Amino acid sequence: MAGRSTFDELWGTSRGRTARPGFEPLAEWIENAPAGDLERRQQAAEALFRNLGITFAVYGEQEAAERIIPFDIIPRIFSAAEWARLSAGLEQRVNAINAFIDDVYGRRQILADGIVPQDIVLGNDQFCIHCAGAKPPHGVYAHICGIDLIRTGPTDFFVLEDNARTPSGVSYMLENREAMLRLCPELFEAFPVRPVDSYPELLRDMLYSVAPRGTREPTCVLLTPGHFNSAYYEHSFLADNMGIELVEGRDLEVDDDIVWMRTIDGRVRVDVIYRRIDDAYLDPLVFRPDSALGVPGLMAAYLAGNVTLVNAPGTGIADDKAIYSYMPEIVRYYSGEEPILPNVETWRCREPEALQYTLDHLDELVVKLVDGSGGYGMLIGPTASRREIDAFRAALEAQPHRYIAQPTLALSTVPTLVDQGIAPRHVDFRPYVLTGSDGVRLVPGGLTRVALREGSLVVNSSQGGGTKDSFVLADRGGGDEGAD
User: Fold this and answer.
1) 13-17, 266-270, 428-432: lowest mean pLDDT where?
2) Is the peptide bond before 98 cis (omega within 30 degrees of 0)?
3) What is the DSSP code (8-state) at residue 317?
4) Is 56 helix (H, G, I), strand (E, B) or coil?
5) What average pLDDT does range 193-213 have in this prediction?
6) Residue 345 region, left (φ>0) first, then alpha (ψ -120 to 50), else beta?
7) 217: Cβ–Cβ under 8 A, 6 or more apart, which residues?
8) Picking from 1-15, 427-441, 448-462, which range would have the lowest pLDDT averaged per residue?
9) Which fold has domain 345-408?
10) Coiled-coil annotation: which residues (predicted)?
11) Cα 379 to chain center, whole Å?
């Protein structure tokens, strides 16, 4: 990153202190804040989160099993025009993801046409052979996608990852907004900020819309691994806000390929399960026999068309980073259009030339496991030690097909309150895209994650990152741009 100009989303690329057009009220708010005022508001927000129990778990860290994600009081802002482009690109990409999943579990035309290599799909750990030939109700597979975006300039947005299995973090988007409304109401007078509080309603409506055909009043539940899971707060939060039951595997049973929920008043048939359990743990009769989290017989009920699983089993094939590298071709294949949101340039280390380039430039690149997540299994070459680089070199040479490499981009920054005052910190962005029987919906917002350590590009909460509220501005011309 040395020598690269970093784009700041408030100040632009200028070395002066002139805010970007339309963002001047935020600059004035920051500069005119009384000494200690922002710190007090931030501490109040974190105390609020702690009192509400908004925590996550860090597996393997006994000394701090539950903690709050650090919250930053200075919001990130998107203009109406920026959001219009992002929402169009997200809809295009998620439609292509659903078409791709439907194809690879069905006709496999994209493989026959040589657009994506067969072995990278059919030999992938995320390919669920049990789902081959099966269609979920209404033909929707990836009902909820969290698409991770990065920015490098005024108009330069890139997709970094497609989270199509069980994307998390949306509760932080909602709670961050509640904190900002309570603690910084003057910002909502200065900016025409579009609301995000309709997300639980949109999610509930989507769940109802994908119930098996012929269901008049569907019963929906949220299936959680339990209170020891790192995202349990979010599971409880979403179930409560949607008005549906939060259940564990032991609360459900399958009888004659129909799913039932046990209640004190007797059994209730379940039509839609928003599952926050990975494929491997869903059904011990099909996947891991030692799983106590899932429901025996659940896959049989799903394959019989008697219950909808959200997201559908097998969606992880579109979540894999090796498949990600083909997403521009996948978008073109199914939409006939150029991708509105491009990928980050990616080298597939399974290819000899790409592997050699990666080995020759390890100290310059970001190298990732194709099935990694949470910031783990990743090398950031410019900040890595010689020992780390040597270890990755050995791993790449031993199993090159397990890795991709990408350039170390100059991620955009947003002013952030840190111990030393206000300083730029790198950010990414995860909007949440819902797909039901009636098409694609998304609220105007998402989760901004911020790397709180100076110079760091790792925004994951498990790696020391925090969150910010994401303001999407309404079009002052009288209309709200973008898809809702």
Assistant:
1) 13-17
2) no
3) G
4) strand
5) 97
6) beta
7) none
8) 1-15
9) Dna Ligase; domain 1 (3.30.1490)
10) none
11) 21
Q: What is the spatial distance between Cα 363 and Cα 388, in angstroms, rounded to a whole number? A: 10
Structure tokens at 59: 């597996």
Torsion angle, CA of 478/479/480/482, rounded to 10 degrees? -140
Residue 124, classified by CB atoms within 10 Å of its CB into exposed (0-12), middle (13-18) or buried (19+), is middle
What one-character-per-residue DSSP string does 114-129 give?
A: TSS-HHHHHT-TT--G
Under DSSP, is residue 303 helix (H, G, I), strand (E, B) or coil? helix
Name residues whose C-beta falls within 8 Å of residue 212's C-beta, 6 or more positions apart in sequence: 137, 271, 305, 306, 307, 308
Contacts of 82 (CB under 8 A, 6+ apart): none
The answer to whether 136 touches 308, Cβ cutoff 8 Å, is yes
The span from the CA of 205 to the CA of 202, in Å, is 5
Phi, psi at 215, each rounded to 5°: -85, 120
Check: CB of residue 30 under 8 Å from CB of residue 17: no
Can you tell me the distance from the alpha carbon of 434 to that of 303, in angstroms, rounded to the nearest whole number? 22
CA atoms lying within 13 Å on the CB side of residue 317: 28
Give the closest residue to 319 by CA, choosing from 379, 271, 278. Answer: 278
In DSSP notation, 77-115 reads EE-HHHHHHHHHHHHHHHHHHHHHHHHHTTT-HHHHTTS
The one-letter code for the residue type at 214 is: G
Alpha-carbon span 229 to 222, nearest angstrom: 14
CA separation for the pair 415, 29 (Å, rounded): 12
In this prediction, residue 118 carries a pLDDT of 96
Q: What tokens were used for 76?
A: 């990130």
pLDDT of res. 142: 98
For residue 407, give the nearest of 454, 470, 362, 458 by alpha carbon.
362
